[in-house]
Amino acid sequence: MRISDSCLPFLAPALQVICRQVRVSPEIAHTTGIDVRRLNLFFLLVFALTIALGLRYLGVLLVGSFVIIPAATAKRLAHSLRGMLVISVAASIAATTLGTWLSLALHRAPGPNIVLVAAGLFLLSLLRRSET
Fold first, then answer.
1. Can you say whether residue 131 is alpha, beta or left, with left for phi > 0 and alpha for psi between -120 and 50 degrees?
2. C-alpha 46, offset from chain centre
3. pLDDT tens, residue order, the chain (132 aa)
4. What is the distance between the alpha carbons of residues 55 and 122, in angstroms, rounded to a whole number?
């Protein structure tokens, strides 16, 4: 299956719909009439589309680091799912911005620098004590 650029405008609204529905647990969503199986399938479809487009444009290393490192950083810092989503997005934006700026200053490829900045943010999150 070939994914075209025409899929890009549909990713943000699709994720917005999913995030609106994810505020509750699957059991509560089911009792309010939300088709949880369809929502899970929709989420997996959007996730797969995002990964496929990312691999096409960014490469394996960068996509892997964008999926794992910001989520791991956010998991250590957040107290709720909403907080985890916000922190994960903020960590991704910060890593991209700082990594790109660093690559321009050092005249290097941006991919490895973005990964290094993301890893640095994760290491900084390790300094915070876990509240378990």
1. beta
2. 12
3. 444 555 555 555 665 555 555 555 677 777 777 777 887 787 778 777 877 777 777 777 777 788 889 999 999 998 888 888 899 999 999 999 999 999 999 999 888 898 899 999 999 999 886 665
4. 22
Contact (Cβ atoms closer than 8 angstroms) between residue 110 and residue 100: yes
Phi, psi of 130 (to 5 degrees): -75, 140
- Phi first, then psi: give them for residue 3, nearest 5 degrees: -100, 130
Q: How far is CA 41 from CA 13, 60, 108, in A?
A: 16, 24, 40
Q: What are residue 42's phi and psi, to 5 degrees?
A: -60, -45
